[in-house]
Amino acid sequence: MNSNKDNFDEETIDKAKSVAESFINANFKEVTAIESEEPYESPMGGMVIDAEVNNEAVISLSFDEEFKIGSYSTEDGFPDKKDECKDKVYES
After folding, report:
1. For residue 50, what are the domain limits?
2. Cβ contacts of 48 within 8 Å, gap of 6 or more
3. Label partner for 55 (CA 20 to 30 A): which of 8, 25, 33, 34?
4. Whole-model pTM?
């Protein structure tokens, strides 16, 4: 895992983690726990946060400079999308 915490100030980290948690809770079923790791810088220069959900599966979220989630990927075992979110994604 990349660890570039020094690239982001505490306010930026807190905001990104908050957006990540809101996104996960708004879009996925049966989320009971979210543990976000420290953000790191992607090869393209954006911020990425990995978060473990329900102590078993990880989601990686990529942010732009306005804290919008540009993309995400999930591991096997990640909670299913909520029915109302299957055709759209909650905007961060």
Report:
1. 5-78
2. 2, 39, 40, 41, 42, 60, 61, 62, 63
3. 8
4. 0.86
Whether residue 87 is contained in a domain is answered as no
Q: What is the CATH number of the domain that holds 21?
A: 3.30.505
Q: How many domains would you assign to the chain?
A: 1
pLDDT above 60: residue 63: yes
Q: Which residue type occupies 36? A: S
43-54: per-residue pLDDT in tens? 988 999 999 999
Q: For the segment 14-48, what is each residue's pLDDT rounded down to a tens digit? A: 999 999 999 999 999 999 999 999 999 999 889 99
Q: What are phi and psi of 47, to 5 degrees?
A: -90, 140
Residue 54 falls inside a structural domain? yes
In a domain, 88, yes or no: no
